[in-house]
Design goal:
The protein is of the alpha/beta class and about 450 residues long. The chain is about 35% helix and about 25% strand. The strands form 5 sheets. The chain has a 6-stranded parallel beta sheet with strand order 2-1-3-4-5-6, with helices on both faces. A 5-stranded mixed beta barrel has the order 15-16-17-19-18. Helix 8 packs parallel to helix 9 and helix 12 packs parallel to helix 13. Bound molecules: S-adenosyl-L-homocysteine (SAH), iron/sulfur cluster and FE3-S4 cluster (F3S). S-adenosyl-L-homocysteine binds next to strand 13.
Length: about 450
């Protein structure tokens, strides 16, 4: 049968608001759209399909969606045939999808993270539906879906989906469902293919990569998976995130130490320094256990970097508890810390707890802790001055066309200038300037490899 040809080119625009897993899901949505012969556009007004891929982890993320939708209402009025899609974690929360459909009736599709495999069907139905189509089924196929990866030399590869940990502040287990490890064969196949396509670096993704495999029949854990992947073809670097300190075994640290491609960067969310708060958060480790893990990592891999996440103002966090978070920061001297003001999430245990900390106090604490950490980050980065670092060049800097950007194995961002496009290459730089979040390097001669 002869297919009717399209009169005009159709474009899509995806706005991604969440974590790396959310970014990966956007790549799958883009994969579907490309299969349906849509092209990506940078200009929102030119989109025929507009997707907002949402996050629910903090209230702020949700507020941004509301304000964005307010503006999009005008665009939809001007261009009624544009299909508006609200996707992701935010709409998977009980009752949210319906509420959003009522408040923003111009939305054509609302879909949750489990509905990724069904996106093409939803998109085909949408132009014929007078009402918002909602798909927030709690399950769906995630294997074998098309992926249109962002430009660059790195690729995201999920090794598990969902989370079973139920940290009491966190919405993720409710919206992403229980932890499900992907089969090792599927992961290896995907990574082998990526290496063949020319990707130099992959980042293994999971809410808790360290518990990988626990739900599989096959006898495999994160350490064994890393060992196998370290042998994989032409890849240069393997990263992983996020690590739950509770499930980080010494054996895993040994495998990382021995691995050639596995990078020496540990993102190890501490969340809080007080044992009382850690227990109320249901994190499953104490401050002492955490410090022991840091000690083991640094003993086996002295040149590593360790970064963390901290929440301030969790219910019941007193000034003394908060000071304990600061003390751990000072003791460990993290390379960087991502700090968050505790945000009550409806449906989680912590949202129901007494002794909620006032917003004013939470703000004061975050300013205090950021000051402490910025100094530490700067001091740690200054230690690299004059030293040589190998970086994988990711491309031109977004702000300056003559400057290229890459990362050290320890995940520090380094800018340097070069006249040659060295994207995708490993280069050696001498570090000549250090700031809390970035470094500047100078290219050393004869030190470029492919
Ligand atoms: N699975 C990852 C984290 C996912 S969410 C892990 O366990 O590390 C990323 C970070 O957001 C968390 O580490 C935590 O610091 C923060 N976060 C999660 N829920 C939050 C909430 N309700 N309020 C403030 N920060 C939160
Ligand atoms: Fe949330 Fe905890 Fe799971 Fe991370 S480990 S996603 S913080 S419940
Ligand atoms: Fe990620 Fe936000 Fe969902 S952090 S898993 S996009 S709630």
């Amino acid at each position: 049968m002869i297919q009717p040809t399209r009169k005009k080119e159709l474009n899509y625009y995806i706005l991604t608001m969440g974590c790396q897993m959310n970014v990966y899901d956007s790549e799958v949505l883009a994969g579907h759209l490309e299969n349906m012969e849509y092209s990506s556009t940078e200009e929102q007004e030119k989109a025929d399909v507009f997707v907002i891929n949402t996050c629910a982890v903090r209230k702020k993320a949700e507020e941004k969606v509301h304000s964005r939708l307010g503006k999009l209402k005008i665009l939809k009025k001007e261009k009624p045939e544009m299909l508006m899609v609200l996707w992701g974690c935010m709409v998977q929360q009980g009752g949210t999808a319906r509420k959003m459909a009522e408040r923003f009736p111009f939305l054509d599709i609302i879909g949750g993270p489990h509905s990724l495999g069904r996106f093409p069907e939803l998109l085909e139905k949408a132009p014929f539906s007078s009402r918002t189509i909602i798909d927030i089924e709690p399950e769906g196929e995630r294997e074998g879906l098309p992926v249109k990866r962002g430009e660059g030399v790195s690729a995201w590869v999920p090794i598990s989906h969902g989370c079973d940990n139920y940290c009491t502040y966190c919405i993720v287990p409710y919206v992403r469902g229980p932890e499900k490890s992907r089969l090792p064969g599927e992961i290896i196949k995907e990574i082998t293919e990526l290496a063949r396509e020319g990707y130099r670096e992959i980042t293994l993704l999971g809410q808790n990569v360290n518990s990988y495999g626990k739900d599989l029949e096959e006898d495999i854990g994160f350490a064994q998976l890393l060992e196998v992947l370290d042998e994989t073809g032409r890849l240069q670097r393997i990263r992983f995130m996020t690590s739950q300190p509770r499930d980080f075994s010494t054996n895993m640290v040994e495998v990382i130490a021995a691995g050639e491609k596995i990078c020496e960067h540990f993102h190890l969310p501490l969340q809080a320094g007080s044992n009382k708060i850690l227990q109320k958060m249901n994190r499953g480790y104490t401050k002492e256990k955490y410090l022991q893990l840091v000690h083991t990592i640094r003993k086996l891999i002295p040149e590593c970097s360790i970064t963390t996440d901290i929440i301030v103002g969790f219910p019941g966090e007193t000034e003394d508890d908060f000071q304990e978070s600061i003390e751990v920061l000072q003791q460990v001297r993290f390379d960087a810390a991502f700090t968050f003001v505790y945000s009550p999430r409806s449906g989680t245990k912590a949202a129901e707890m007494e002794d909620q900390v006032s917003l004013e106090e939470k703000k004061r604490r975050i300013v205090t802790i950021n000051k402490v950490q910025n100094n530490i980050s700067l001091e740690e980065n200054l230690k690299l001055l004059g030293y040589q670092q190998e970086i994988l060049v990711e491309g031109k800097s977004k702000t300056d066309q003559n400057i290229y950007t890459g990362r050290t194995r320890t995940n520090k961002i380094v800018h340097f200038s070069t006249e040659e496009d060295l994207t995708g290459r490993l280069v050696n730089l001498e570090i000549v300037e250090a700031k809390p979040w970035t470094l500047t390097g100078k290219l050393l001669d004869n030190n470029i490899s492919f």
